Amino acid sequence: MIIVEGIGHVNIPVSQLEASIEFYREIFDFEVETKKETEAILSLDSFKIRLVQTAPKDQSMPVISFVMDVDDFTEAISELEEKNVKIVKGPEGTENGESLTFSDPSQNLIEIYYEN
């Protein structure tokens, strides 16, 4: 067994680097650590993502999706609606709370949830 002591970052392919940087900054308060011509590393506390600009691709299946726990689910939904973020699914009840799925500018799926 390999013992993982941490994760450096998660790669997220994006078709529009600048729009994606702004999305993750505005929606989740990520900070830009480094930025190059075709990539950027953003951080939120100790969690890091690496946005990598790629050619547009078939969007019928998401390339990546990840889940984020939020402290105020209703406020999060209101903020997404105010910023005209495309909601893909939800909000809906789960067996332990509520979830909502939306997409970033490159159609990567992001799920937020609130556990009761």
From TrEMBL:
Residues 6-115 form the VOC domain. Keywords: Metal-binding. The keyword Metal-binding applies. This is VOC family protein. It comes from Leptospira ognonensis. Transmembrane segments: none annotated. It comes from the Bacteria. GO terms for molecular function: metal ion binding.
